[in-house]
């Protein structure tokens, strides 16, 4: 029997909560092992690798490789090279950042380079460091992937890489648990509510959601607004909108973060309408997660989200001041029609954005690389 291909997964992102890059790793490798259970063995690196293993479903084909430090430089320079030697790794999968020393074939995923297209949303030092390290990682990769056509084209543009070198392994969405809509999530308000799921930073544009909520005076209709996400960067526009909002409107707004995946799913499922107003994304998973629950989602038609053509009934132009409020009002005023449109979008979305498709793309790339070395 042929020995399985050993893939090391750099999974430090699971050490500090659950974020988009963790969702990507969990969904991609669950699907890869489901499709090829005897072909791959995973070695999962992290300070708390058991968290990543749990997200993967604790498969028998995966084992933990604990780090000894939480320092990024030491992790890349010491911990990972040690694991490479001890575990006889065939491929190592990194997101964005890679070690100096290359000991095996590399799979590198760069989700986006938004800091180049939208520099106003990112600190100067943030941009400078990534524009040194990201192209190095990309050019040294044996398999280079990203999550959308938009990101592929922008990576190719900024770093002078042939687009054909960049494989698209998009995020997937799994069919929602039908029980989620009946569960009561922590922090769920009574009655009807809108939900906006995204960490707080200027490009996420939560200010537009609050302004639309206030302009429509939705609290007077008994509708609440729920923001889910940590504040990772200062958001002056949101703070200004909050300061100007009437006290009654602010009383109808909730801020939540650190929810379990189960509570988040239940919270989304219970919403009347979801809103995703982001001005720039390399993919944009929250609107797909809402549609998976059958919840209509107002979505900005920009950057990678413009590819979600099944969301056409729910798109709006964030450059138009009243556009978001009009879409929200239309969905609230005709909820049955909005739900029917969401159901139709859900069918198409689950066909186009399945983890199995991304996993098969990665599998083919690995196979091609192994054949090229024979």
From TrEMBL:
Keywords: Transferase
Domain Glycosyl transferase family: from-to ranges: 190-347
Annotated Glycosyltransferase subfamily 4-like N-terminal domain residues: 49-175
Gene3D superfamilies, A to Z: Glycogen Phosphorylase B
GO-annotated molecular function: glycosyltransferase activity
Keyword Transferase: yes
Family annotation (InterPro entries): Glyco_trans_1, Glyco_trans_4-like_N
Record-level GO BP terms: lipopolysaccharide biosynthetic process
Coiled coil, from the record: none
A Pfam family of this chain: Glyco_transf_4
Xref: SUPFAM superfamilies: UDP-Glycosyltransferase/glycogen phosphorylase
First and last residue of the signal peptide: none
Domain of life: Bacteria
Protein's name in the database: Glycosyltransferase involved in cell wall biosynthesis
Species this protein is from: Stakelama pacifica
């Amino acid at each position: 029997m042929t020995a399985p291909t050993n893939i090391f997964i750099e999974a430090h992102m699971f050490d500090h909560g659950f974020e988009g890059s963790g969702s990507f790793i969990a969904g991609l490798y669950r699907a890869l092992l489901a499709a090829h259970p005897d072909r791959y063995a995973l070695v999962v690196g992290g300070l708390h690798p058991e968290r990543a293993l749990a997200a993967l479903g604790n498969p028998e084909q995966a084992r933990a490789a604990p780090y000894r430090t939480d320092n990024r430089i030491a992790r890349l320079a010491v911990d990972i090279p040690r694991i490479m030697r001890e575990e006889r790794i065939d491929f190592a999968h990194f997101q964005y950042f890679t070690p100096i020393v290359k000991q095996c074939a590399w799979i590198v995923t760069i989700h986006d380079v938004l800091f180049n297209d939208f520099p106003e949303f990112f600190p100067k030092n943030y941009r400078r460091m990534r524009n040194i390290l990201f192209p190095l990682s990309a050019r040294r990769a044996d398999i280079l992937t990203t999550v959308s056509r938009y990101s592929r084209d922008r990576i190719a543009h900024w770093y002078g890489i042939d687009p054909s070198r960049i494989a698209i392994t998009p995020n997937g969405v799994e069919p929602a648990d039908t029980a989620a809509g009946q569960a009561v999530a922590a922090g769920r308000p009574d009655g009807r509510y809108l939900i906006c799921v995204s960490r707080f930073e200027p490009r996420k544009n939560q200010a537009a959601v609050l302004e639309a909520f206030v302009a429509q005076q939705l609290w007077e209709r008994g509708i609440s607004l729920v923001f889910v996400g940590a504040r990772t960067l200062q958001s002056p526009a949101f703070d200004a909108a909050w300061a100007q909002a009437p006290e009654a409107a602010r009383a109808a707004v909730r801020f939540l973060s650190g929810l379990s995946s189960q509570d988040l799913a239940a919270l989304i499922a219970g919403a009347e309408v979801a809103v995703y107003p982001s001005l720039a994304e390399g993919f944009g998973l929250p609107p797909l997660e809402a549609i998976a629950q059958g919840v209509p989602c107002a979505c900005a038609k920009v950057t990678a989200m413009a590819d979600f053509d099944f969301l056409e009934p729910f798109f709006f132009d964030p450059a138009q001041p009243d556009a978001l409020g009009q879409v929200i009002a239309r969905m609230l005023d005709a909820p049955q029609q909005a739900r029917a449109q969401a159901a139709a979008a859900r069918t198409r979305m689950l066909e186009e954005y399945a983890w199995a498709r991304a996993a098969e793309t990665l599998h083919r790339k690995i196979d091609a690389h192994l054949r090229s070395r024979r």
